[in-house]
Amino acid sequence: MDPKRPNVVLILADDMGYSDINCYGGEIDTHNLDKLAKNGIRFTQFYNTARCSPSRASLLTGLHPHQTGIGILVDDDRPEGYAGDLGKNCVTIAELLKKNGYRTYMSGKWHMSTSTSTVSDTWPNQRGFEHFYGTICGAGSYFYPSTLTQDNVIIDEEAKEGDFYYTDAISANAVKYINQHNKNTSEQPFFLYVAYTAPHWPLHAREKDIAKYKGKFNEGWDNLRQERLNRMMDMNIIDKEWELSSRDSTVSPWEQVKNKEWELKRMEVYAAQIDSMDQGIGRIISALEKNGQLQNTLIIFLSDNGGCEEPIGTLMTKWLINEGSGREFTRSGEEVRFGNKKKIMPGPENTYQSYGVAWANLSNCPFRKYKHWTHEGGIATPFIIHWPEIIKAKGELRHQQAQLTDVMATIVDITDSQYPEEYNGNKILPLEGTSLVPIFENIDNGKGMLFFEHEGNAAVREGKWKLVRDYPGDWELYNMDIDRTELHNLIDKFPERAKSMIKAYEEWAKRCGVIPREKILEMYKQKYKSVQKK
Q1: What is the DSSP string of 131-166?
Q2: pLDDT tens-digit profile of 127-163?
Q3: Which of 164, 208, 322, 432 has the most crowded Cβ, counting Cβ within 10 A?
């Protein structure tokens, strides 16, 4: 391997499904991501952890999210539940690389701190990033985001200046960091974490980007799912023997759908959000190229969970406003119209909607389920790696299994960094991941069993077998070699196989601090009762 240590650019999409981007079978124009895939490698069986904050915690630390204190989201549920903050028993990629001679930058969404308005020791600057531009909270307006921050200073009012759009701002600041680094410290390698909020709700996009997708989805979700399946089979991303999962049982056939114009507009805006992100990624690639950094920069792209079916209804609206991420008024003082209301077309700043179950079903094609679940629709992500100086493969697929914890392990490997046993006087948990470097050459990396848990939904992957549970339902068992769409439950046929995997899961859950869902729900119940009494 080249002795010159590489730069690392880690790019994360938010709530984007497995097959949305073009190089994974989707209809959306993502020619910059496609270019990375064409000149690099794509993984077909890479997994996240089904939800935004836990995925981010796992990605940046190389641990399972429960070990970091972020087992669900960023609510402080102690002492019975998770802390909701990154713990001191882990180090981030930024902390690790900074100690090993790297400059460290971040642009985008943080969402790993219970404190969103007051600086805490779990903000980006305090967790290894020398410079940070982005939002501390998890979601919000693309035109007027809440908790917009420069390093440790809230700069919400910046969004009122000029033609602000958050996705563009994330890209612009990433480019700025690359240019400044090259000007000031070009001999020193850098780590840049670019965490987009696209395409997480609300459905906000520029009109020019939305217009590009007018008519693109007119065939409806049924035909589009079949067409995606066919393209993915032609690309060898999925096996030709696998069946397409059924349309979600809550969704009508496309020909029976009323309000088609509104439904189509939802998907058009969603597509525009991804398109805008891809445009920004193109500007980042150009900046690397202009500064002579592209060849020896490892670029990784993935999504934090599968497509999101969450509706924006009355309860969600109240929570968003109370939590502070949902702006009640636009920059000009106009009232924001919250909710998936069919008489209101999504896209502008004065709306706040999501794209719903049917389109999420398309995003996660050909798989079942969505964000939150550990079936493939919730945890399967596109995963692109581009590193011209080392990875000579062009446009190849890698079918080996891997997960978020492996990213830190890979970065430790390729940067010749020393992973610490202690950091700032705190004992650090051992890495859970395995380096992906052998897979670059299409060699197995010795990865063992993969484990997942979120809100009681759980899974174990061992070779061709996957054990999975939709909480509080029973365990299911699938042979992923012949049925990755999880349609034929084999648990009754192979009870001993299931039993051994359940035992392995229980041992992992205990070791990694997974709190049983029953205990979490009881805690929430008691909290609710105490609030009601006040």
Answers
A1: EEEEESSS---SSS-TTEEETTEE-GGGGGSSS--H
A2: 999 999 999 999 999 999 999 999 999 999 999 999 9
A3: 432
